[in-house]
# Entry
Amino acid sequence: MRMSRQTTVTVVVAAVAAVLLGGLVVRQLATEPDEVEGGERKTVAVRADSHRLDTADDGKVTLVEFLDLECESCAAAYPFVEDLREKYAGRVTFVMRYFPLESHLNSRNAAHAVEAAARQGRLEDMYRRMFETQRQWGESQESQAPLFRTFADDLGLDLATYDADVAGEVVAARVQADVDDGLALGVTGTPTFFLNGEKVEAASTDDFVRRIDDALAD
# Structure
């Protein structure tokens, strides 16, 4: 069940707003990467094969989230993003991109599991399962790949295909391509959002919403 807007803001305001302001960033690199500029930012933020959770009718406004499925702040932002998807259904394109952090042992395993599910048409189901169960497996110092395989089984995926994809080069390259684009855009932690190619640096969740409204009105 989705949270009400007021409840959502209460839950995520500390975690999400702090990330947006740069105060809760888990570093991926010790140094800042070279960033793309100008019109190229939109192209890098959203590739033709990027995973779109929702697609706007007019394609005018696109919100991209670079996320780590093991990141607690991403899990805190998850209900907020779901609320945004409901509020802006048909008006905003929502894009999910992988950015597993080196500090999280199972973040890449989780990304590979989601991508393997995506190859069988079950991206969103696995994406939801990861955030809904994160407290069960997050911060574990042992591989949670066997647990993620049970998620695949629960979803009715072809497990032979899933196993091959999770361990295969195609899925690994697909996840890494998202990471590379994130680094090119200057992403250093998660969650990081881009609105029409520009990084969102909002003072609060209400400010975040206003930025989307302004983009729609522009």
Notes: Strands lie at 51-54, 61-67, 92-98, 192-195, 198-199. The longest strand covers residues 61-67. The chain has one domain: 5-217.
